[in-house]
Each structure stands twice: as C-alpha cells, then as structure tokens.
Amino acid sequence: MLVTDLDGTLLGGDAGQRRELREALDRHPEITVVFATGRSVPSVREVLQDSFVPSPRWIIADVGASVVDGDDFTPEPVLQECLRSGWPGAGRVRAALSGFRALTYQRVPQEGRCSFYLRPQYLTAELRAAVEELGCSWVYSDGRYFDVLPPRAGKGSALALLAAKQGWPMESVLVAGDSLNDVSMLRLGAHAVVVGNAEPALRQRVPPGARVQHTHEEGAGGIFAALRRLGWVSGVHRLVIGYHRPPAQWTAGGWRPPVSPNGILPVLRRVAAGTADAVWAAAAVTGDATSPTAPLDGRGTGLPLALMPLSSADWGAYFHRACKEALWPVLMSRPDLMRFDASSWGRYEEVNARFAHHIAAHAAHGATVWLHDYNLWLAPALLRRSRPDLRIGLFHHTPFPSPDVFAALPTATQVRASLSDLDWAGFHTDAFAANFRRTMAGSSRIPCTGVHPLGIDRRAVEDLARARTAAHRGGRTPSGQLVLSVERLDYAKAPVEKTEALHRLLSRHPHLRGRLRFRLVCPPPEPGIRAYDATRRLLERRIAAVNSTWGTADWRPIDYRPRAVPFTEVVDHYLQADVLWVTSHSDGMNLTAKEYVAARHAAGMPGVLVLSRHTGAAAQLGEAALLTDPRDAEDLARTLHRALTLPLARQHAHLERLAALLDRHTPAEWAAQVVADIRSRTGSR
To answer: How many alpha carbons fall within 13 Å on the CB side of residue 651?
Structure first.
C-alpha cells in the first residue's frame, strides 16, 4: 500500500518524475494507492483530472476527518463517525478562539475542520490549551496553517483505522509526506518517506531510521525512489512479452506451472526467466468467487511478471465470448459457428486498450514488444499511437484464415487496420503467412512476415519416454490395438467426426470388434466457455451410441477420458498407443504429433501417425505421416484402417522417417530467432 499526501508530495516534483511514478504504479497494480490529504473530497475529484495522478482506492481527506471509497466517493460511515466524534462544529471553535487576534480565519469547504492562518511565534501555550479545552486536536504546518480538528481526527488516526479494517500490516505500507500535518501517519511504524522538498521541521520530527527514508528527490520523484529502494517497483524493460494468460495457474496451493514441457507457455517461461531485462505482461482474473485470486506481484513463479487485474466479468466477456465465440470460429475457418455480440466486442476493445497501456508502461524506449495470438489483435494500433518508438511483433499460434473467411468477421476492417501497425507477424507455416499477406493486401502498411514452426523439447520427451518404457514394453495393449487422441474439447479437433469414423470402421470390419480401442483424452475447456457446449453434448451422445451398438460386457470401443492429465501420464498413453489419430479441421501446429513420434522413437517402439492435412504439423511431417482429411468421413475411416493394417516393418520405417523430420531447433532457439526477427523486422512483405 502507498499512502501519500497530495500537495508537495504526490503532486510535487517535475512532470517527468510524476509521469515516471504513474507509469511505475501502472506496472504494479498490486500496489494499492491511498490519498491522505488536507483537501476536501470535491477538491480531490479535480486533482484526478490530471493524467499523471494515479487512481486511489481510498481517500483520507479533510486532514483525516473524512474517509471515502476512491472508486465511487461514498463515505466510510463507521470510520468517519469515529473520526468526527466529539466535534463541536466550526462555529463554536471560531467563537471560542475569537480572543486570539493572531488567528486569521481561512474559509475551507471541509466538514470537521476549522482552519486559520497563524504565524509561528503566535502558536502559544495559551492557544493550545484553549483548543484542548474545546476537546479538539490541532495540527500546524508549513509555518502558517493552524487546523483545529475533531479530537480523534488526523491523517495518522484515519490511516490506522483504515488499515485495521482492511487488515493491512504496517510492514506492507509506505507512507509519504512533506509537511508537519503528515507527522501522525509517518510515525505509525509503517515504511515512510520524507520527500526532498519537505519542511525542515518535518525532517527533524521524523528522523531517518530502519523504516524511514529521507530522499533528495522531490515530490513524486521521492516516492518513486522510496518504492525502488524497497523493491516494490521495477524499471522498464527492453523486451515485453504480451500474452493474455500468465505462465502459471493460481490455485489454493499456490502457482502451478504448465503440466507439459511443450507449448507456448513453457517456451515463454524460459524466455522470460532466461532473458535479461524481459518481462511477461499478462492478465490475472480477480473477483472470481469460484477460485482464489492470484497475487498480482507474481511472487512464487520465479519469473518477471507484470500482471494486469481483470474482473471475472471482464474476462468472461473478453475471452469466453469475444475470443471464443466470435474470433475462434473465423480462425478455424468455420464462420458459420460465429456468434458476434457487440457488447462483448466492446469489452474486447477495452481489454486490448488496457493491455496496450499496461505493456507501454513496462517498455523502455525502443523496446521490443512480442505479442501473441488473436487475443491482442487490437493492441498494435493502440501501441503504435502511444509509443511509436517500439518494435512490435505478433506471433499467431493459430491458423490464419483465407481473406474471404476473415472478411466474415463484422469487425474485420478494424482488426486489419490494427494489424497493419505491426512491424512483424509470425506464423507456423507458409500457407498461414500467405493468407495473412493476402488479407492485408491494400493496407497502407503491410508488416513483414516470418515463418517459424514451433517444435518440442525433444530431449525432455525422450528422457521421460525411456524412463517409462519398462512398464509399457511391446507397444500393444493386452486387448489388441489402441488408437489414441489427446486433445482439448473443441469442434476444431473433430472429435465427433472421429466417433462416426470408428462406427463406420467397426461396421465394415467385424474382425476389429473386441480388439480395437479408441482412447480419447479430452480435457474440458475452462469454466465459462460456452462455445464448445454443443460439441460436448453431441460427442457424449455419439460415444454412448457407439459403445452401446458395438460394446460387450468386457469391451468398449471408445475409452473417453474428459479430464486433464499430468504429462507423465500423457507419455504413458503415447507408449501404449499403436496409432496417434490427429484429425483437426484446422490447427496452428499440433505438438502432440511431434511428442508421439519422439516418445515412440526414443523407446524403440513402432507406431503410426495419422495426421490431418489441415494442421501446421502436416507441413513438416506430411511426407512421412498418413495424411487424412477430417472433412471427408470416408477418408477418415479408410486412413485409420490403413494405419491399423500397416505391417510391423512398415511401422518401424514409418516412425524412423517421422523422427528424422522432427525439429532440429530447440524451442529456446525458436524464440530467440523470433525476437531477433522482430527487432530487425526480418521477413517477407
């Protein structure tokens, strides 16, 4: 918590210092800002029009006689009643002190405060005694202001009450001030900073100590210096990774890293952890009643994180609705499934604007910004407008559709205009890059494009496969042949089409009944995503129908496992499966295909990869895999039957050819090349 006076403190220092502090607080939303000021609440509203002033969560006003909520300016009635208890009123105070001719009344708008001008030599014992006889307290500041307050009022009293109500330990609070009316809060035992332009008397009353800093920097500059010395804020970075998710999932037991060593999250974890002066900017969902809120400082991840809080309502509209119901169907070349809602799109625009502001606040001058995926499609234009000094790249981990499919999006013109502000756009395949260039044709500015297919951590997969081989030697299950699919629930993965193909196969080839099993490991999407509900219901009906039609007392053709599993268990499935069946209608890459090949090859086992020709992996492995077309039901069944009847020697040769085609570059090398391309804007136009 940062509790700061306004005039002379937060509002002090030059414009550059105030901007620097504001940007630092934007980078660290985990720091709660509290104003503690002599100003009235209406006067604080005026201050908030200044773009360099951060938004306070709470406001202590009227020299500690008022406490209001910074979001809606509603008073905290219990706290204010306590602080104003015993106040006789300004009229009675003036009357009681009318005999002190050195006092000049100062009209102020605050309730619970009577203010006078007074020269220092007239602050006599008689005057102090008269105030005490009224049952009031007083503060004197800047050699001229004499404020009479309710007996329990004061910045320190108000802060102590607020901290007790909110459960703030004083070691988590930094108090900043510049005048004697800040003394009471500077002496509460919290971390404190007396800024460079403070009254000399304040420096004498609050000397430096273990928790008290005296800075040379003035105003906002002094606050920023104190925050830096405490380690509560960081500087700006040369590389900012912009991704809609953090690199770990927050649970009741703390941060949980990805279960797999492969995929974009593990890759970016390595980049963030291993690159000097890099930071990962992501959203953290707050206010979700179904799960604990992640700590916004990201501690416990071991990574340089800059988390931006999003309410669960904002996340639902942005990600569950706009991303998954409007954009995802277009990316998957299924615009017929698109559900576009103007309200949700408005949230998408707002979240992208917040991301752009958040990223810009963390980026050094001339920094490289590496954005990821369609979730941040509107960020490039916003960043270009506010930070023309940045190098901005975006890697698409999804397919990029043809221009006619892209045009089906009602906001296609808006998105295209934003993407034209990229310096560089990356893709897994030449075909996706070509679609992008065709879509951007005619734009005023066309980004460079690069093709960088993402690989796997082959060594990690191979080491794990060898360690698990003893329990799965032979590669065949006791009941016959096992066909495996490992994929999240998504209509784009064609899970329903697979069940139909299996039904067709069993009806045509009776000898497979009782011997063939299809294991579908299919984790559900995160709660709140409705885009796949119809697919899930239809899939479960078709699985039940196929198992009912062909199953027996001791055999079911489809082994459906709708849950996430540890990567060790995934590798166990690879080692058990004679065939990996990948049938995506559209897929950016599909790393399970590469993992299966690496695991089986390391274990010395044969295996067959049936791979959709519409995956990014097909561009690399297609010359050796058995390619299939999930849009053709007959082809699905026919290609699977071919895989099941492939002679053992052919299986070994098949897998050897696939293994030879696996990526030579590690994921870390992949990431380094992408960053280098963004920085140099290397690629095709």
So the answer is: 20
